[in-house]
Amino acid sequence: MAGDQVTLLDFWASPFGMRVRIALAEKGVKYEYSEQDLRNKSALLLQMNPVHKKIPVLVHNGKPVCESLIIVQYIDEVWKDKAPLLPSDPYQRAQSRFWADFVDKKIYDIGRKIWTTKGDDQEAAKKDFIDCLKLLEGELGDKPYFGGETIGYVDIAFVPFYSWFHAYETVGNFNIEAECPKLIAYCKSCLQKESVSKSLQDPQKVYDFIVMLRKNLGVE
Amino acid sequence: MANEVVLLDLKVSPFAARVRIALEEKGIKYESREEDLSNKSSVLLKMNPVHQQIPVLIHNGRPICESMIIVQYIDEVWNHKSPLLPSDPYRRAHARFWADYIDKKIYPIGRNLWASKGEIKESSKKDLIECFKILERELGDKPYFGGETFGYVDLALVPFYSFFYTFETLGNLSMVAECPKLVEWGEKCLEKESVSNTLSDQQKVYEAILQIKKELGVE
Fold it and tell me: What's the CA dihedral at A73, A63, A106, A213 to 10 degrees?
């Protein structure tokens, strides 16, 4: 659409921001990426997301859209001429929303427990995390993507967390690929797509970032 | 088209109430099956193996779970009347944002208010009032969050109107003093049959919460 101004307020390591980057890339939308300092939030961020004061925020022709999955649905609805992210059938759409919601409710929070806790709490978090990944692996089945033959809403919701797996594994001292080989194979195949490889971060950089966060939080 | 619609339900659940209101708004005939959450039916466990929670809508044998996902499904399938989401993508994103805000805040903070004591309870009370005030600002002078007609955000929030008496009594606060416009909005929503037929009586909700508190061993 000519004359569209699209800005993404984001933070390089955020899996939520990565979701939006992938969606914009899939749709071929030109946008300005604006890296935010989360310890010193900009006036623009506070103005565009006064309720949660978080990234990502998509600013489209001056109007903000917040919450990563809501942004992804917005992108799908506005730039609807290519690369549909949600299925067209209402039942399939409900299933996609369900699994994206599952990823939202579980993966980040349980993953966070892995790098912010120790001892029994960490062990419990690791077990929960693997249980969730196994459920997702079951849902993926033999399909190339959660969406079927093409990348879709659930793939976009989930695959950014792959950037964080190395950090979880190193801090938690466990091996995700040993537990969920099919899911890891799937993540690697997603990375063959430019929209994904350009949006995800180098796992080593993410790990270094987590190490710094742990130090700041006082976790050993 | 043979339309078999079953709702795995719980009368006092605000999440199930959302689905019942949506079904009524659309004039959909359905069978409600009350679940006993201390003794979950095999149907519930089969239809929602991941979360094992209500509500679950079963449409022609296929399950849909999570209240606002069910509401969107209902809106998309029965799109001939009473649209719940706006048609404009920006307004849809705006509606989804506020329904998500309600989901993230009202139930968990409200639960902390009635299920805990001391400092947690006090800070939950403060947080809950703050959330309601933020919602009141979003409502502004509009009759409904949706504008002129009852919509997605109204539907997400209105079941919690049944909890106001519980919040007031257990939280020692006055909703009409803190958020008069929100109380007014709740009363306006209750003028709609789909809402008044569906919402649990505030006293019944209070008694159900007292029962849960007893089971949890919270004074």
Answer: 140
- Percent above pLDDT 70 for chain A: 99
The interface pTM score, or ipTM, of the predicted complex is 0.95
Partners of residue B208 on adjacent β-strands = none
Show residues of chain B in contact with A77, CB under 8 Å: 89, 92
Chain A residues touching residue B72 (CB < 8 angstroms): 93-94, 97
Q: How far is B97 from chain A (nearest CA, A)?
A: 7
List chain A residues with CB under 8 Å of B66: 97-98, 101
How far the first Cα of chain A sits from its last, in Å, is 50
Mean pLDDT of A80-89: 96
Residues of chain A with a CB closer than 8 angstroms to some CB in chain B? 51, 60, 63, 65-67, 70-71, 73-74, 77-78, 90-91, 93-94, 97-98, 101-102, 135
What are the pLDDT digits (tens) for B105-163?
999 999 999 898 899 999 999 999 999 999 999 999 999 999 999 999 999 999 999 99
Q: Edge-to-edge, what's the strand order for the sheet holding A6-10?
A: A32-35, A6-10, A57-60, A63-66
Q: Residues B92-96: what's their mean pLDDT?
A: 98
B218 Cβ partners below 8 Å, 6+ apart?
B115, B116, B117
Measured in angstroms, the CA of B203 and the nearest CA of chain A are apart by: 32
Whether A2 shows a pLDDT value over 70: the answer reads no
Query: What is the side-by-side order of every strand in the sheet holding B62-65?
Result: B31-34, B5-9, B56-59, B62-65
Beta carbons of B101 and A51 less than 8 Å apart: yes
Residues 6+ positions from B172 with CB-CB distance below 8 Å: B125
Interface test with chain B among A72, A78, A97, by most B beta carbons within 10 Å: A97
Task: Give the model's confidence band at A1: pLDDT under 50 very low, under 70 low, under 90 confident, else very high.
Answer: low
Kind and range of the H or E run holding A127: helix A119-140
Percentage of the residues of chain B whose pLDDT score is greater than 70: 99
Buried-exposed string B117-128: b where 16+ CB fall within 10 A, e elsewhere: eeeebeebbebb
Q: Which of A70, A90, A101 lies closest to B97 in CB terms?
A: A70
Q: In this structure, what token pair is assigned to residue A179? A: 């537990």
Two structure tokens written together for B212: 């849960």
Q: How far is B29 from chain A (nearest CA, A)?
A: 19
pLDDT band at A220 (very low <50, low <70, confident <90, very high): low
Answer whether residue B3 shows pLDDT above 90. no
**Has residue B1 got a pLDDT over 60?**
no
Q: Which residues contact B50 (CB under 8 A, 6 or more apart)?
A: A102, A135, B65
